[in-house]
Specification:
By secondary structure, the protein is mostly helical. The protein is 88% helix and 0% strand.
Amino acid sequence: MKSHAHASLDSLLARFLQCGTWAACVLIGAGLVLDAHAAGLGMRALTAGVALFIMLPVLRLVLMLAMFARQRNYLYVAIAVTVLALIAAGCVIGMRLGPLAG
């Protein structure tokens, strides 16, 4: 059985992901509507919505890190920091070696 802290973390994460998904959907929908009228603004809204979808798992990890730190669960803090560091390293390496690299 889950403790109260785990249940509240699960509930917070579920609400966060649900709100983030809705926000990304609204941005993409607005971008599609605006694209017919104002191409520049519509494209920016579409891009922001897709970026939010991509960033949601990383933002979830940051939220989990904050919650684990608040609970003083240092093992999970270390795990979350390690995963964030790996994601950051992957982004840096991708920018250095990928098609966008100079």
